[in-house]
Design brief:
alpha+beta, 3-stranded antiparallel β-sheet, 1 helix, 3 strands, elongated
Length: 76
Amino acid sequence: MKSKRPSRSGATRSIGLMLLWAFLSVFTAFSSFAPGTMPQFQPGGITVVLCTGDAQRSITVDETGTPVEAKDVPCP
């Protein structure tokens, strides 16, 4: 005879859903970048390093996607 599993309380169910949502959002964020790219967020834009078979290429774009000159920001 199968034993009936106790039903989950509302708090347990909501914690499980929050953990699932957090895992999926982190997974989606990291999988949005293609393999061989390394993003670096900085003031004024994002720099992406593209690793190719020949060399590394860097490009910096602003919020609109327009290529801009990279700003040299010292390490904190």
